């Protein structure tokens, strides 16, 4: 099945979009959701889009899947970039260990529900 037709991917994208709309357009901030929902959904959305592109260009097409190591590398990359490097370079970013956990949970959701 195409990633773009996977209901779990679609729901993750819609939740991400609704949260951004509420925050940026409506100015509605729900504390826990504002702090962690985007981090939880980031990996399913980013890895899902990346998987779809790979399926378009890889010879295996829709049978192509990411290995657990590839998903872990994505988690480590996001964690390092957004929770270590960017907070050192800019005051608008704040390191939060719970974000790393949310990225990890998002990777698990992606691997179990979308990467199949």
Structure description:
- With 116 residues, the chain is mainly α.
- The protein has helices spanning 7-24, 31-57, 68-89, 97-114.
- The protein has one domain (3-114).
- It is built from four helices and no strands.
- Keywords: Membrane, Transmembrane, Transmembrane helix.
Task: List the domain count as a whole number.
Answer: 1
Helix-strand topology string: HHHH
C-alpha geometry: globular
Average pLDDT works out at 96
Number of beta-strand segments:
0
Helix proportion: over 70%
Distance between the termini: 9 Å
Sketch the major β-sheet: none
What structural class is derived from the secondary structure elements?
mainly alpha
Instruction: Figure out the total of helices.
Output: 4
Task: Extract low-pLDDT stretches.
Answer: none
From the alpha carbons, calculate the radius of gyration and give it in angstroms.
15 Å
Keywords: Membrane, Transmembrane, Transmembrane helix
Protein name: Magnesium citrate secondary transporter
Which descriptors apply to this entry?
116 residues; mainly alpha; 4 helices
Give a brief description:
This protein has helices spanning 7-24, 31-57, 68-89, 97-114. The protein is an all-alpha fold and 116 residues long.
Strands, helices and their partners?
Elements: H1 7-24, H2 31-57, H3 68-89, H4 97-114
